[in-house]
């Protein structure tokens, strides 16, 4: 019986090819637009290599310093010094790991008497490699012993290694970074700029690269930010409480100034939408996304519903004849369901394919911004970033519901009508 319903559905779809294809493409475009929006949102939120722990990571990208007794609005705002990072965050006992990392900045990388390149570099520590999961092509990360000793070790990405050495097998070789010799400890696969916390092309220990000497405001501010890996997202509140205790203890040791964090540590979502000292408006962000999704769903759905309703009205006579030959209301409703299921399945497949094509084609437009415009990397997309089965299922189900209602309501009315009225389309 189900096979018969599907055959009938294909027959009726072929009967009106123009309306059928307009309906398919309309539904497909609705799904495509929603999926593109969801993909642009989720690539920065879902756990994917190397940021495989986003769901249980907290961030402190900025901080503020003010004179003791002044209001919060009378403050200086920047990143933290190594000292602040160590005493306020590395000293945390609850998290699984805490790393300090500088912002990304450009360096001149060269091999004596050979290649030269400009690359994006980050200064960090050994905990960085615990929080983030990099794919090492050769060698390994620098260790705690390397950091404690201030050894000049460097990890390169594959593109930089090839530009400098012609191969990714560069472990043990020497590279000059702003004219300082570093030994290559490992080479990792390229990292997309969409991995905003982990991205760089070269990573070195901050103890070897001068980050500790870069400080101001009573040695409270500097080039670093803190990244905290919780054992579970359930620990976030407790970690924030411990962070506040360490902050107060740290401020007690400062004579004239005090530090504060303006609502940090941030979750992944808040971290992405924080701009300097302004606290992230996460509810506002979610509301704006929700409004856009609703508009993208409703406008095409209403148009498609009108087309489907018109198609069903023209079939009133057919429904009346089938009812005259003994078809029950349930059979008529099932036929309508399978017909619209076939229509929406076809539209869903087309819409999903279009969304991936559009995302790759518009990669630069969707993901380039003022934050990464000066960087050398790529906004590369990985399968883990793209796949969002739940978003597709939700968009698909909504479009299916709209199509079923627009076709099912007139079919239900026809199934309850007098046979003569249905045949005469009254």
Task: Write the topology of this structure.
Layout lengths: L1 H14 L1 H26 L14 E4 L2 E5 L7 E4 L3 H9 L6 E6 L2 E6 L5 E9 L3 H4 L4 E4 L4 H6 L3 E5 H8 L8 E4 L2 E9 L13 E4 L18 E6 L6 H17 L4 E4 L7 H5 L9 H32 L2 H9 L4 H33 L1 H5 L15 H4 L2 H28 L2 H5 L3
Parallel strand pairs: 6-11, 8-10
Antiparallel strand pairs: 1-12, 2-3, 2-13, 4-12, 5-6, 5-9, 7-10, 8-11, 9-10
Helix pairs in contact: 1-11, 2-9, 2-11, 2-14, 3-7, 9-14, 10-14, 11-14
Question: Care to give the gist of this entry?
Answer:
This protein has 426 residues and is of the alpha+beta class.
Describe this entry's structure for a reader.
This protein is an alpha+beta fold and 426 residues long. The chain is elongated and about 90 Å long. A six-stranded mixed barrel has the order 5-6-11-8-10-9. A three-stranded antiparallel β-sheet has the order 1-12-4. Strands 3-2-13 form a three-stranded antiparallel β-sheet. The chain is built from 15 helices and 13 strands.
């Amino acid at each position: 019986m189900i096979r018969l319903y599907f055959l009938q559905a294909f027959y009726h779809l072929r009967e009106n090819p123009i309306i059928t294809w307009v309906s398919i493409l309309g539904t497909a475009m609705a799904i495509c637009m929603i999926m593109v929006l969801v993909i642009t949102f989720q690539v920065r939120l879902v756990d994917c290599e190397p940021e495989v722990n986003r769901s249980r990571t907290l961030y402190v990208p900025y901080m503020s310093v003010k004179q003791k007794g002044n209001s919060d609005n009378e403050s200086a705002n920047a990143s933290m010094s190594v000292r602040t990072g160590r005493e306020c965050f590395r000293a945390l006992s609850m998290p699984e790991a805490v790393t300090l990392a500088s912002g990304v900045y450009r360096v001149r990388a060269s091999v004596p008497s050979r290649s030269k390149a400009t690359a994006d570099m980050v200064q960090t520590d050994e905990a960085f490699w615990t929080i983030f999961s990099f794919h090492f092509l050769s060698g390994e990360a620098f260790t705690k012993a390397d950091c404690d000793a201030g050894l000049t070790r460097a990890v390169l990405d594959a593109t930089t290694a090839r530009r400098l050495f012609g191969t990714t097998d560069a472990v043990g070789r020497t590279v000059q970074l702003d004219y300082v010799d570093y030994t290559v400890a490992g080479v990792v696969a390229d990292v997309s700029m969409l991995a905003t916390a982990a991205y760089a092309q070269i990573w070195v220990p901050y103890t070897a690269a001068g980050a500790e000497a870069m400080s101001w405001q009573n040695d409270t501010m500097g080039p670093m930010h803190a990244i905290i890996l919780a054992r579970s997202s359930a620990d976030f509140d407790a970690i924030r409480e411990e962070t506040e205790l360490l902050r107060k203890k740290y401020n007690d040791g400062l004579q004239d100034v005090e530090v504060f964090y303006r609502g940090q540590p941030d979750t992944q979502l808040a971290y992405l939408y924080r701009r300097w000292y302004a606290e992230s408006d996460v509810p506002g962000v979610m509301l704006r996304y929700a409004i856009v999704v609703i508009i993208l769903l409703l406008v095409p759905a209403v148009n498609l519903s009108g087309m489907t309703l018109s198609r069903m009205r023209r079939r009133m006579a057919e429904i009346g004849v089938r009812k005259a030959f003994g078809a029950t209301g349930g059979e008529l409703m099932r036929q309508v369901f399978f017909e619209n299921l076939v229509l929406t399945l076809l539209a869903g497949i087309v819409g999903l394919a279009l969304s991936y094509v559009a995302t790759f084609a518009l990669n630069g437009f969707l993901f380039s911004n003022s934050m990464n415009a000066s960087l050398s990397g790529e906004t590369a997309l990985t399968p883990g970033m793209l796949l969002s089965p739940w978003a597709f299922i939700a968009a698909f189900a909504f479009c299916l519901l709209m199509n079923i209602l627009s076709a099912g309501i007139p079919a239900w009315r026809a199934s309850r009508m007098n046979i003569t009225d249905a045949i005469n389309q009254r």
